[in-house]
Amino acid sequence: MSSSTDPTSSAYSEAVNKLGLKPNIAKALELPDRELTVEVPFRKDNGELESVVGFRVQHNNTRGPFKGGIRYHQHVDIDEVRSLATLMTWKTSLLDIPYGGGKGGIGVDPTKYSKTELERMSRRFFRAIDPVIGVNVDIPAPDVNTNAQVMSWFMDEYSQIHGYSPAIVTGKPLELGGSEGREAATGKGTAVITRETSEKWGINLKNCKVVIQGFGNVGSYAAKFLHEYGCKIIAVSDVTGGLFDIDGLDIPSLFDYNYQNRTIDGFDQGKKITNEELLALECDFLIPAALGSAINDSNVDSL
């Protein structure tokens, strides 16, 4: 992802021009404080040694410790992580939260590994970035394909080195000091924003047709709460493809199925469609809750 195609860089340049920032200040705010690339060797269940590449980018800590999630996805690279770390700086600043911006990840498809392999990989990665993180320095969190379980591995590994340190990550299990409602927070926020937007635009939310791309932590909870608000969720998708039912999907059943199977594939309701077909469906609200750049020059005209 070059600066010419990175939407974060483009938006930043536009903001700099509107604010009239001096070039030296603009450059200082754009460049990350630190970028770390690490090798992550770990043992697979069959005894073979595998090595993957991980990243942690610390963009800016002027307002507080670096803060941002760690994601596991095959498309993760240093450019994406840098862009996301930059966005975290702007998000924490705009909401007046006393944190800076950071982000991390491993370029790996987690579905190809067992739980024990993911644990070994996670622990090894956290040891690799240990020199640059800390309770008052840089505090990771869950992101794409990471969850409370992964955070508990991170916390335990860090605590083995530094002593009991529950504050080293957020998004932990409740039993380890996590926050109630944290897992559902982003999806619920999406649903609330949709509800408030509908009121502002004079749209009756009852029976509104909603399409959601992505049914992970964000999309699944957004669907759950929007369904409770009275919306008709006519289509959802995940990495395996989409499901469509013009009369509305059975969201409570689909939510439970996805929670148990970590995929919507195999659910016994709805017509199978592609993600491309999903984005082109006629609806009242389209919610992109998957990875970035889902809406781009190649498909924007079909929305």
Annotate the secondary structure layout.
Layout: H1 7-19, H2 23-30, E1 34-43, E2 49-60, E3 66-73, H3 78-94, E4 101-107, H4 115-129, E5 138-142, H5 148-162, H6 182-200, E6 209-213, H7 217-228, E7 232-238, E8 241-244, H8 251-261, E9 271-273, H9 275-279, E10 285-288
Parallel strand pairs: 3-4, 3-5, 6-7, 6-10
Antiparallel strand pairs: 1-2, 2-4, 7-8, 8-9
Helix pairs in contact: 4-5, 6-7, 7-8
Which CATH class of the largest domain?
Alpha Beta
Distance between the termini: 24 Å
Which percent range describes the beta-strand content? 15-25%
SSE class? alpha/beta
- Figure out the total of helices: 9
Poorly predicted runs of 5 or more residues: none
- Helix content bin: 25-40%
Write down the overall geometry.
globular
Per CATH, the superfamily of the largest domain is Leucine Dehydrogenase, chain A, domain 1
Strands of the largest sheet, in order across it? Answer: 1-2-4-3-5
Q: What is the CATH T-level topology of the largest domain?
A: Rossmann fold
Count of extended strands: 10
Number of domains: 2
Sheet with the most strands? 5 strands, mixed
Assembly annotation: single chain
Which value, in Å, is the CA radius of gyration?
A: 20 Å
Structure write-up:
It is a single chain. The protein has about 300 residues and is of the alpha/beta class. The protein folds into 2 domains: about 35-180, Rossmann fold, CATH 3.40.50.10860; about 185-300, NAD(P)-binding Rossmann-like Domain (Rossmann fold). The protein contains 9 helices and 10 strands. It has helices at about 5-20, 25-30, 80-95, 115-130, 150-160, 180-200, 215-230, 250-260, 275-280, and strands spanning about 35-45, 50-60, 65-75, 100-105, 140, 210-215, 230-240, 240-245, 270-275, 285-290. The protein has a 5-stranded mixed β-sheet. A 5-stranded mixed β-sheet has the order 9-8-7-6-10. Helix 4 (about 115-130) packs across helix 5 and helix 7 (about 215-230) packs antiparallel against helix 8. The longest helix has 19 residues, at about 180-200. The radius of gyration is 20 Å and the shape is globular. The model has no long low-confidence stretch (mean pLDDT about 95).
